[in-house]
Design goal:
This protein has eleven helices and eight strands. Helix content is about 50%, strand content about 15%. Strands 1-2-3-4-5-6-7-8 form an eight-stranded parallel β-barrel, surrounded by eight helices. α4 runs parallel beside α5. By secondary structure, the protein is of the alpha/beta class. The protein binds ligand 3DU. Ligand 3DU binds next to β8 and α10.
């Protein structure tokens, strides 16, 4: 995934027409589309293949099972056209290794979740999970845009791995803060897909990012 716009759209809508419409409208501001269970359960897994024709797809299945089941899930997602998957890290090295092997390394590992409850169980273990992601050869990690200081800490641990950061907009995080802290991409859902003008909403975030990138040039 080449960072250009630095925005990954979280396409958590449940209807096919709406999904395709949002992607079509916002496409010129996006580097990838993240597809999660609401859309897959609402429309069917074929939506992964359909969206993959328009933009790289990250399948956010939050994979969290034993190694064999993880492998089976990742293989299916890649066959459907996903460019990468998202897996949980708390299941341990062997489960993550199965994801890495089945996707040839195209896995983002959830370290610490962005919502308030993420501080209960995920924050205390995030640093170990981030180190495991690097050691197992994952492509990157998922770290919270709602806590930019934690992105900075994760960056120290993962080195050159990609950091993708959810929590921008509806959850209160700011795109430029997340990037300044060390994220490569921000993940934005509701702030784009619930907007009346989805293209404009994506453009506004893109402009904020462009201003930040100019500032650090
Ligand atoms: O809050 P938003 O509507 O911008 O959506 C955020 C997306 O990122 C959503 O798909 C959610 O499942 C995902 N995500 C988090 O919000 C927080 C995490 O720690 C990991 C993934």
């Amino acid at each position: 995934m080449i960072p250009k716009h630095r925005i990954i759209l979280a396409l958590d809508v449940t209807e096919r027409t709406k999904a395709l419409q949002v992607v079509d409208n916002a496409r010129s501001y996006l580097d990838a589309v993240k597809i999660n269970w609401p859309l897959i359960l609402g429309v069917g897994p074929v939506i992964i293949s359909d969206i993959a024709k328009l933009a790289p797809v990250i399948c956010d299945l939050k994979i969290a099972d034993i190694p064999n089941t993880n492998r089976l899930i990742v293989e299916r997602a890649m066959q459907l056209g996903a460019s990468a998957v998202i897996a949980h890290g708390f299941t341990g090295n062997d489960s993550l290794k199965a994801c890495v092997d089945a996707s040839e390394g195209r896995v983002f590992v959830v370290t610490e979740m962005s919502h308030p409850g993420g501080e209960e169980f995920t924050s205390p273990n995030a640093e170990r999970i981030a180190a495991m992601a690097r050691e197992q050869g994952a492509m990157g990690i998922v770290a919270p845009a709602t806590r930019p200081d934690r992105i900075s800490r994760m960056r120290e641990i993962v080195g050159s791995l990609k950091i993708i950061a959810p929590g921008v907009g509806a959850q209160g995080g700011k795109a430029s803060d997340a990037l300044r802290a060390g994220a490569d991409f921000v993940i934005v859902g509701r702030a784009i897909y619930t907007a009346e003008d989805t293209a404009k909403a994506a453009e506004n975030i893109s402009n904020e990012i462009a201003d930040y990138l100019r500032e650090i040039e």
